Structure formats: structure tokens, C-alpha cells
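Working notes for the structural subgroup meeting. M.R. asked for a predicted model of this chain before we commit to crystallization trials. I am recording the input and output together here so anyone reviewing the notebook later can reproduce the run.

Input as submitted:
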Amino acid sequence: REVGGITQHIGAYRVTTGKGTAVFLDTPGHEAFTSMRARGAQVTDLVILVVAANEGVMPQTREAVAHAKAAEVPVMVAINKIDLPDANPDRVKQQLSELDLIPDDWGGETVFSPVSAKEGHGVDDLLDLAILQSDLLELKANPNRRSQGIVIEAKLDKGRGPVATVLVQRGTLSPGDNFVAGSWSGKVRALIDDQGNKIKAAGPSTPVEILGISGVPQAGDEFTSVADERSAREISSRRQQRDRLAAMLPMARVNLETFLEGVQKGTIKELNIILKADVQGSLEALKDSLSKQGNEEVAVKILHASAGGITETDVMLAAASSAIIVGFNVRPTTGADLSAKRENVDIRLYSVIYNAIGEVRAALEGILDPISREVIRGHAEVRQTFHVPSIGSIAGCYVTDGAVQRGSEVRLIRDSVVVYTGRVSSLRRFKEDVNEVQQGYECGIGIEKFQDIKEGDVIEPFVTEEVARTL
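Returned structure, recorded in C-alpha cell form:
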């Protein structure tokens, strides 16, 4: 706890109970969590959402739920301050059920645990439930290998130089180990645990402070032990060069124009949207309409929806989740506008609901795989057959409708049954090779790799076309 009784910096704590050990990452709202996800880091195995029983669900609660869902991390709820006279746990359950966090005692899958942090009531039960949830997730890591982890936070300390707090996820980290954290290399001078004690080794799921790094990495950067100092320096040098080049290039985020590129590569089948509107009524109408777009192949996923202007928090969530922001009768704040330009987040502003729905629908229709449809180009009746040396069987035909083209796909039909499907290998009128023979003319047709042509057969040329689908 810091100024105002609000958590302002991230912290990592290791808690041991009779049923096992858990590591807690205490974040300021969700900003650090988001910045880590924006770098592709999966830090948490379980989110404990703390909601005050007397206040209920606040806007920041909804945002935190949106972040946890976007990261696809299981959520359990701690209803705090149940000792207060105006505490109303049932109201909290009702409000969170509207966010699809259905309490387990209501038949849902979300664990709710009432606690009083001030009085200490229910805290042990909360820890036991959290450890039970982790057991069900079957979380395992190998301690007998080089260490890997994630940078939780980093700072420049006046007395100690660059300091990084790292959560070790695999392997064991020891003093003297060479490592790379983000774009910086180093050699562990000391390991300090969450109690401020120097330790000799840090195994999986251990948060430690590391001294001996050459610079200050960013939250969410990957931490990896390497064989020697030379390797660490080489990797660090390459990454710093890469970062300098990346800084010169615009970041690629999802927007409606580039959406199809991801679809064509097979990487996107879902459009993530953050929805903002001027009033709750408009928000619900737009959310309902957009959610109905799509089918079993493609879908709109509303990561977060709230009334009010577009904020920097919305832009952060969009950047971390590859989402676009759809605003109805609202505008971004100055800070949000600058953040969106910096992060290359697409903000779409509308004053007519149907325009918003139309653009999203058009983007989704572009995702759908096209339908393959056969188009029959004509028919030719076999009236006589010939055998030509070095070529094989040739069908003397009369084109009854449409046209036959050299190289086109054809079916050979006998007594209304398809006998063979292949291609036209030769097409002649009299002794001249031609590219096409129209209806009402005679011609000689040779079919690739097929000799069993008989009088009375019908040759049916066709093409396969891809037709765009609609929802």
C-alpha cells in the first residue's frame, strides 16, 4: 500500500501455506499486466479479482475483467470488506455475473471467496482456494535447466545501479549466472527475495530482484540464462540493433483495412473490438447488434464495452489485444489520441449505428472462405470415335450447347453417369488446332489420359469458380 492506500507499483510476493506455495503479482489496476501482454508475455496462471463488497463493480473492475478475458486467464473473485455494515456480496455476484463471471454457488464456474483483509477473515480460505485452482491447472516446471522468466519491473537505483525484478518460470537462477533480459545483458551479482534477504538460488515460480544488469529492461521482457558472458553480450548487441531498426518502422496493429491480410495468412478468424458509446442505451444496442454478426467460422469478440469517452486505458487494451476501437458519439481524449497514434491503434468513430454495423459486417464477410462453385460451360455429343497414332482416341463430337475450350476441365458422361473427369488435351476442327469450338459446330476432342471413349458419350466442360460469401 502506498499514497492514498492504493497500489501504485507492481510487487511480487511468495506466500507459503500448509497446502502449498503461491506467488502473487500485485499490479496497479491492470496497466503493468497489459504492457506485459503487449509484449507477448504470459505471466499469470490465475487472476484473483478483488472487489469491495460495499462499492461493488467499478469501471476499473470491468476493465480488469476485460484484460483477464483477453489474456484467457482463469479468474477467481475475492469479495473484500465483508466486515463493513453496508457490505452487499450478493450485489457483487449479480454485477459480475453480467460480465459472464457466474458464481460457482449459482451453477457457474467462477470461484467467489468472501474476505476481510482488515480483520483477516477468509484470507486463509482464499489462499487454499487459489492453490486448489492451481492444482487443477496441473502447473509444472523443470528446475534442472538454465533459467527462464519474465521481467516484472525494473528501475535505476541510485546506489545499486539497474535493478530488475524477475519471476523465474523455468530452471534455477544462481549468483554468477550470465543472462539476457530484453535488450540488456548481465551477470548475477546478487539475488534478493521479496523479504529483502539475499538467497543462493531461485527456482520456478520464484520472484527475485537481480543486481548486475547493464541497463534497465522493460516490464514483460523475457529473461534467459546463457552459457557465458560473450554469448550474453552478443545477444544483447543484436537485440539493441533490432530495437533501433524497429523504432524506425511503424508498428503493425489490426485495423479494418489490413484485417484481410491476417485472414489470408490464416492467422485471424476473429475481430476483437473495444466498444465505447455516449450513453448506456446506445452501448447496449450497438453491442447486441455487433455480437450477432458472424457465424460459426468468424465472429466479433467484444473485449470491453462502456459508456464514456475513449481513454488511454482503452488504447492500451486495444494495443495488447490486437483490437480496434469503435466509438459511437464519443471522441478520444487528447492522451488517448496520442497513444493511439503512437501504438498504431485503429479508432473508428461513428454517429450512425448502421454505419458501424455495416463496416464491421463487411470486414467479417471478407474473412469467410469463398464457396467453390462449378459452372458448366456446355455439352458435346460423341458421334464417332477415331484412333490417331501417337495421340490415342479422338472423339468426333457435335457441340450441342455452350462451347468447348482447349485445356478446360471436362467430364465424360455415359448413360447419365460420370465415367471420367480430366482435361481436353487436343481440340480440332477438321485438321486445324483451335482454342474454342462454339455451339452448332463439329470438332475432334482428345481427353488427357483417357482412351475409352464411345459413341453416345457426352463431354461436359466446366470451370470451378470461387464465390464470395455473405453472412
